[in-house]
Each structure stands twice: as structure tokens, then as C-alpha cells.
Amino acid sequence: MAYRAWFQCINPQCGTQYPLNAIVYRCDSCGSLLEVTHDMKALAGRSAGEWKKLFEDRYKSTEWPYGSGIWGKKEWVLPEISDDNVVSLYEGGTNLFWAERFGKMLGMRDLWIKLCGNSHSGSFKDLGMTVLVSQVKQMISEGAPIQAVACASTGDTSAALAVYCAAAGIQSIVLLPKGKISVAQLIQPIANGSLVLSLDTDFDGCMAVVQEITKDETIYLANSMNSLRIEGQKTVGIEICQQFEWKLPDVIIIPGGNLGNVSALGSGLLMMKNLGLVDSMPRIVVAQAERANPLYRSYLNNFETFEPIHAEKTLANAIQIGNPVSIQKAIRTLKQFNGIVEQATEQELADAAALGDTFGMFNCPHTGVALAAMIKLLKAGKIDKAERVVVISTAHGLKFTEFKVRYHEESLDFPCRFANKPVELPASVDAVKEALRQALQKRRNADV
In this structure, are residues 280 and 259 in contact, taking their beta carbons and an 8 Å threshold? Predict the structure, then answer.
């Protein structure tokens, strides 16, 4: 049986459908967001065991394009796309790091970090961008008038879009909030040939502009309101399960900004359950920065209302978003997964990132938000220390070296509990020996 997929309106009272090669981002009938929907009856024609074997056989192989962590699950993502139009940089397949010592320090038995930043552009956004750019390449081959692909970004989306468009030979356009992203994030789209537009606004302002300019069908929208992105990102939950030999953890913690990653995670997990690969679901925890916390505020009133906010400046700049596009999908997902939303202050997120680093990680500030939320939920008893917990690390720490330098120089607006300054000494053996003696004594005292 042939596998197929289509866009469908998320409004249950509407349900309008569109082909995946349609240039459409919201439902023309009711204005709701869309989601990619699969022919589950056709997919169920293969048994759960057969799907597992197929995915295992392809995983990290050299057979194009199935060695990719995304395209190895092609039937569950974009089943009808031609292999010749797939734009892949061997994304996915990132390591699941057993944070044994860090977990023991917190009294946990089973803590893992999914290092999604160990990817081509350095963030989890690669998972969705390979799908979107591949579909655009297919549409162009079919005669679509698309001349460029555009996104608003706080840094990681633009980097992923730029590198995949460069690989595909398609022009990319990125709208960035001036002065609100790291130098490393800014240089990535510049290096990859994007048209970089630095706007004097925040992410929400950039998002408003990009939605207007992409009403022109020659410019295709690449933000997560385009559900093609979700189709790639949903594989992170499937891959975590695969890495645990087809068993899911008890809790998955993920940072939340524009919130497409939340619904993507839930989508992949539900697909596995509906096709019989798993029989239970984890709880999903969304972690937000206190200065950009509209979902957390809605959670406090049981999601009965949602009010956009003006997001304040935060060290976790990629999630400095006050009016998330995917709010409806995120709330729906959290209700399905007995979800929790927690927030982290600037000091909490910075200290958590730095503390994690001392146990072998190199955390971005957004992972710091997730780690801080986890620590707070452990203390509150909302996560059991005996549970298997996976924290999704969304980007590589090398993209945020200014954040780390400022922390260890203690130049932030709060005490930096785990700062580790270089020790300046004269070029003297005796001075070095004395510094070593003091440092090792301090280490011994800490261990006691």
C-alpha cells in the first residue's frame, strides 16, 4: 500500500485538507494552523516489529538518504518525496549522553541529555529544516514559483535555513532582531550566503514582517508555523526511544519559545504509540525563561486563557518570544501528555548551565533553562528521582561563548556561583606549585 501525507487544519470543527505542495501556512477556511497528517491505515500495514527493524537497518547507514536520522524514517515524514530532491546533511543520530555524575549529585538514578546541538548547524532546527527545504526543492522541480525561502529568527532557525538552502542552491532570507543574537549565530547565515536583514525590533516584530512578505508566493515561509518543520523535529522523540532499545523515558524536558518543538515532540511520540511501537507515554515538561514565559502563565490557570506578553531581554535569547505561533498545538500536546510548565530566572538558568558544564557538558543557555526547571521540579517532588529523565539540549554551547565568558568573568547582573576564573601567575615553578597545592586542597575539601 502506498504511503501518503497531507496538510490538515488542526481545528476539529474544520479539518480542511491541502496537498503538501500547496503554498499554504494557515487554513484558508478558519485561519487555524495546519499539521501534516499521515495515512495511518497504510502505515499500520507494517507491523511494529517490521518498522523497528527497518529503522534499525537504516540508522547511520551510507544508503542515500536513509542514513540520516530523519530520512531513515521517511515513510513517517514525507513519504512521497523523490530521493533526488532530499536535501540532507546527515542530520539526526545525535548522541544521548548519560549524565551519570550530574544525576548522582542531584540524587537521580537515570539522567540523560539528548545533545541535539551536535549537528551540522549546531542546533535541533536542522531536524525540521531538512524536511522543509527538501519539500521546497521538490515543489520548484514541479514548477512552483518559489525564488527564495525566508524566516524570522533569534539565531538557530536562520542558521539551519541558511545552510540547507546553500546545500540545495536556493536563496535564503533571514530576518533577525538587531543586537539580540550572538555573534556566532549572526555569522552563520552570513557565511552561507543568506540575505540577512537585521531589524530594529524583537523576534515577534520580525515574525510579523516575515508573515507579510511571504504572502508573495515567490517567497516561501520557513518558520515553525509551517508544519513541514514539525515533521522533521518530531523524530527526536522517536530517536530517543530507538536509542533506549524502543523504550521511552518517564519524563522528557524541553525548552520552549515559539513552541513548535513541543508539539513536534508529542507528534512523534503519539505516532509510535498509534502504530504499536510503544504502549506508554512520558510526561512532557516545557521550560521557559521567566522573562519570556507566556506558556507558563497560561499553565498557572490550567490553560483556560492565554495572553501574549512583551518578552524581556533574557540570556536564553532563542526563546525570547512573547507571542508563540504554535501556542495552540503546544497546549494541546501538554494536555495529552500530563504536561508541566516551569520557568527559570536568569540566575537559575545561568547557574544550571554552568553546573552542568562541570560534569562534562557544554550547555547553551536554553539547555540551562531546561536543567534549572528540572532541578526545581525535583526539589518540589514533581519529578521522582528514580524516574528516567531526558533533557533535550537544543543547541551547541559554542554558539554562545559570550554568555559563558561573561558568566565566568562574573560580569552578569547576579552572583555567578560556579564561576571559574583563570589564575594569573608569574612564570615561576614555585608559584605554579603553590597554585596547584591550593587548588587540589580545595578539591579534596569539596569531595569531603
Answer: no
Q: Around Cβ 143, how many Cβ atoms within 10 Å?
A: 8
What pLDDT, in 10s, does the model give residues 351-390? 999 999 999 999 999 999 999 999 999 999 999 999 999 9
Total domains present in the chain: 1
Coil, strand, or helix at residue 84? helix
Provide long-range contacts, Cβ within 8 A and 24+ apart, for 105-110. 105/359, 106/375, 106/378, 106/385, 107/378, 107/385, 108/378, 108/385, 108/389, 109/385, 109/386, 109/388, 110/249, 110/386, 110/387, 110/388, 110/389
Cβ–Cβ contacts within 10 Å for residue 418, how many? 15
User: Angle at CA 255, nearest 5°, toward 223 and 284?
Assistant: 105
pLDDT classification of 1: cutoffs 50, 70, 90 = low
Cis peptide before 145 (omega within 30 of 0): no
Distance in angstroms (rounded) separating the CA atoms of residues 26 and 363:
35
Residue 255 lies in a domain: yes
* Rg of the Cα atoms in the chain: 22
Close Cβ partners of 45 (under 8 Å, ≥ 6 residues apart): 1
Contact 287, 253 (CB under 8 A): yes
The residue type found at 94 is: T
Residue with cell 504499536: 276
Q: Which cell goes with 213? A: 512578505
Q: Are β-strands 5-9 and 34-38 bridged in parallel, bridged antiparallel, or unpaired?
A: antiparallel
Residue 265 lies in a domain: yes
Q: What is the domain-level CATH number for residue 348?
A: 3.40.50.1100
Q: Strand pairing of 110-115 and 388-393? A: parallel
Q: Residue 291's domain spans which residues?
A: 96-122+230-408
Would you call 413 exposed, middle or buried from its count of C-beta atoms within 10 A (0-12, 13-18, 19+)?
exposed
* 448 inside domain: no
Give 184's pLDDT tier (boundaries 50, 70, 90).
Answer: confident
Residue 155 has pLDDT above 90, yes or no: no
Is 42 within a domain? no
**What does the CA dihedral 310, 312, 315, 320 come to, rounded to 10 degrees?**
0
